[in-house]
TrEMBL record:
Location relative to the cell: Cytoplasm; Nucleus
UniProt-listed Gene3D superfamilies: P-loop containing nucleotide triphosphate hydrolases
UniProt KW keywords: ATP-binding, Cytoplasm, Kinase, Nucleotide-binding, Nucleus, Ribosome biogenesis, rRNA processing, Transferase
Protein name listed in UniProt: Adenylate kinase isoenzyme 6 homolog
Recorded GO MF terms: AMP kinase activity; ATP binding; ATP hydrolysis activity
GO BP of this protein: ribosomal small subunit biogenesis; rRNA processing
E.C. designation(s): 2.7.4.3
InterPro entries, A to Z: Adenyl_kinase_AK6, P-loop_NTPase
Keyword Transcription belongs to the record: no
Reported function: Broad-specificity nucleoside monophosphate (NMP) kinase that catalyzes the reversible transfer of the terminal phosphate group between nucleoside triphosphates and monophosphates. Has also ATPase activity. Involved in the late cytoplasmic maturation steps of the 40S ribosomal particles, specifically 18S rRNA maturation. While NMP activity is not required for ribosome maturation, ATPase activity is. Associates transiently with small ribosomal subunit protein uS11. ATP hydrolysis breaks the interaction with uS11.
Organism in which the protein naturally occurs: Trichoglossum hirsutum
Length: 176
């Protein structure tokens, strides 16, 4: 049994997953698993897609790569998809949401080209990731949080810290 929870932080590119994950990792000691980085560095892909301007992820290889670490517990999984992670691995799913005009500016600043930018904006407006999370996990563990301002980040991270603490208290209660 895990003694530290696993948290998935997901949402459309640019919503603030990596910002939140980094802060939460440093305040809780949980481990930040940047799936972007793992895909790239450990070669969990079948090459680069020019059309999508991203790696074509080999999901089986990715899951094999992170399985031992995640099963051990205490991971913050940072990625713009969530339905591939087995339910048994995941204790909390945080879906970050951002106002579309704010997201537009962030993605523009990141250098996204018009088509990719529009695709991601549509995805945020249609709340694709929220639906994906709700379809893939029990509703009690899926939480939607705003990420428009830096105050939002602070508040969200504090809230997640408290959640981690109470999760651990509950687990230590079970274990006597
Ligand atoms: N809540 C927020 N308030 C202000 N700036 C934010 C917020 N969330 C993210 N940002 C900024 O937006 C950009 C993208 O954030 P990032 O954490 O890299 O998003 P993601 O990992 O979801 O793609 C960064 O420049 C970050 O500083
Ligand atoms: Mg990121």
């Amino acid at each position: 049994m895990r003694t530290n929870p696993n948290i998935v932080i997901t949402g459309t590119p640019g919503v603030g997953k990596t910002s939140h994950s980094t802060l939460l990792a440093s305040s809780t000691g949980l481990k930040h698993l940047s799936i972007n980085q793992i895909v790239k560095e450990r070669g969990c892909h079948e090459g680069w897609s020019d059309e999508y301007q991203s790696w074509i992820v080999d999901e089986d290889k990715l899951l094999d790569e992170i399985e031992d670490e995640v099963k051990h517990g205490g991971c913050i999984i940072d990625w713009h998809a969530c339905d591939l992670f087995p339910k048994s691995w995941v204790d909390l799913v945080v879906v970050l949401r951002t106002d579309s005009t704010i997201l537009y500016d962030r993605l523009l600043e990141r250098g996204y080209k018009e088509e990719k930018l529009q695709e991601n904006l549509d995805s945020e407006i249609m709340q694709v990731l929220l639906e994906e999370a709700r379809e893939s996990y029990d509703e009690e563990i899926v939480v939607e949080l705003r990420s428009d301002t830096t105050e939002d980040i602070e508040g969200n991270v504090e809230r997640m810290e408290r959640w981690v603490e109470s999760w651990k208290e509950e687990i230590s209660g079970y274990n006597g």
